[in-house]
Specification:
single chain; alpha+beta; Beta-Lactamase; 4 domains; five-stranded antiparallel sheet; 14 helices; disordered N terminus; disordered C terminus
């Protein structure tokens, strides 16, 4: 590539729009000036990093500089006239001579590439540039030319062409649509699979459409801006899922991968990548999400029913039992007798069961957030949990909105219940931290203990539904769950739900 750059620079020097090379002889002692100019030219030509030659009006070569002779390894008298042609590769000789002869007859500049035998017998690719010369009277006096070794460039080009051919062959055989877009996002190549993926044949896309034209109109500007931001940074992207509006108007989904292709100077040449049609998978995921949402809704409805049944029926009946036992105890002649103590014990047990069932009913269905708010309901639960389990729960909250939709509150509340329950059973400690933090974008819940810890990866493989249920609940509202735990260093469970309604999946 370096040689090609040298050739371009020299061509610009020796080949202006109208090339005229004349000796500058303006004084009576012209022969002396001509001799001096000739010597200076030969000295410069011999010092140049390129091959230089000259020819006369008879088309025969009359001059070669030292680098040319060193390259071919031949003496000057062997190269002069038509001798230089003996070093040209036989397959290239006819084209080389035809180009030279036709340009010579028309007195035009020419460029030709041919293989020239080097001193070691190896043929090297040469870029040869020739320009006509004229004297001060505009009389044609022959040609002057330069030549550079461009073998390395040719090898790179051949390698690239081979790679490009293999890439195109694989692209056309792939089930994914392969594409290229220029820095402005205009398609410059798509494989034939585009007909099946997007509904458009390649001829309707290449040079006609930009990548963002395939995106549905709703959200197109944001999609375009996000992609151009990536392209400006020359970043690669992987498994980016986006909507595609097919030619027939139907909505499809694609998983896109792309890498930047840069020019030698580091500027962006194009982006190249693939798009895999994942519409069936996306529809299956949406169907599964719909089923999951309905199962969770049914689960919540059943919890609500059981919770209300416990609170409105079982708790009330147990409370009546406690009252009746209390009355019986009051009418016993000797409360200190064995019978009196038994009645007192039964009354105490019934009272504890009543409190436990009432707490269970609140866990199954708590409507306290409706009148206490998420902060009040969470604080109340932490207090009740601590009293019931005889543990300490340190609760903190910051910047939480006064009201929160039930579909956002319940996932966080269920994560809190599951996390505290697991921590109380398995951590081996009696002190826990709960933080509820808000921002304009989301609400985050953190439950932390400094106990025994566990292996999160192993926990995900167990058959329990607690962790799976927490993740699924959060996923359905666009949230996420993370678990950090280490043996003997405690566990941190972090849940996040976005406040933007557009982040919530629809059924």
């Amino acid at each position: 590539m370096k040689n090609a750059s040298v050739a371009a620079q020299l061509e610009a020097v020796v080949a202006p729009t109208k090339t005229t090379i004349r000796p500058q002889i303006t004084t009576p002692n012209g022969d002396e000036i001509l001799s001096e100019s000739e010597a200076r030219f030969r000295w410069l030509a011999d010092a140049a990093p390129v091959l230089i030659w000259g020819s006369g009006v008879d088309k025969l070569y009359t001059y070669f500089n030292r680098p040319w002779l060193e390259f071919t390894g031949r003496a000057l008298d062997l190269e002069l006239g038509e001798g230089w042609a003996e070093g040209v590769h036989p397959e290239d000789l006819r084209q080389c001579l035809n180009t030279y002869t036709q340009s010579f007859d028309r007195r035009e500049k020419f460029r030709v590439e041919y293989r020239l035998r080097r001193y070691d017998g190896e043929y090297r690719w040469i870029l040869d540039i020739g320009v006509p010369r004229f004297d001060q009277d505009d009389s044609f006096v022959g040609y002057m030319g330069i030549a550079v070794d461009v073998t390395d460039r040719k090898l790179v080009e051949e390698t690239l062409r081979g790679s490009e051919a293999r890439y195109l062959e694989l692209a056309e055989q792939s089930r994914s649509t392969h594409w290229e877009v220029d820095p402005q996002g205009l398609f410059i190549y798509v494989s034939n699979v585009s007909q099946a993926t997007w509904g458009y044949p390649p001829e309707e896309i290449i040079g006609q459409m930009h990548f963002y034209d395939l995106h549905p109109e709703e959200g197109r500007d944001a999609f375009k801006a996000a992609n151009f931001a990536i392209m400006e940074q020359k970043q690669r992207f992987q498994d980016v899922v986006h909507a595609v509006k097919r030619k027939d108007g139907r909505l499809a989904w694609g998983s896109v991968n792309g890498i930047p292709v840069l020019n030698a100077d580091g500027t962006l040449r194009c982006y190249r990548g693939s798009c895999t049609d994942i519409t069936e998978r996306k529809l299956a995921e949406e169907a599964l999400s719909s089923v999951s949402r309905k199962l969770i809704e049914a689960h919540e409805q059943e919890r609500t029913r059981i919770g209300r049944e416990l609170h409105d029926d079982i708790v009330q009946r147990l409370a009546m039992l406690v009252v009746q036992l209390d009355r019986i105890q009051q009418h016993i002649p000797d409360p200190a007798s064995e019978f009196g103590r038994q009645i007192g014990d039964l009354r105490g047990q019934a009272s504890e069961i009543t409190n436990d069932v009432q707490s269970l009913s609140h866990e199954l269905h708590s409507s306290k957030h409706e009148y206490l708010g998420i902060v009040g309901a969470t604080r109340n639960f932490c207090r009740e949990f601590g009293e019931r389990q005889k543990v300490e729960v340190d609760f903190q909250s910051h910047d939480i909105p006064d009201t929160l939709p039930t579909d956002l509150f319940l996932p966080l509340f269920r994560v809190l219940q599951e996390a505290l329950s697991n921590a109380s059973k398995h951590s081996g400690v009696r002190s826990f931290e709960v933080k509820l933090l808000g921002s304009p974008e989301d609400i985050q819940l953190t439950v932390r203990d400094r106990g025994a810890g566990f292996d999160p990866e192993a926990a995900t493989k167990c058959t329990g539904l607690g962790l799976t249920s927490m993740k699924e609940r959060l996923r359905l509202v666009g949230g996420e769950l993370s678990i950090r735990s280490q043996r003997e260093h405690g566990t941190t469970i972090h849940a996040r739900v976005p406040l933007g309604r557009d982040a919530i999946q629809s059924v």
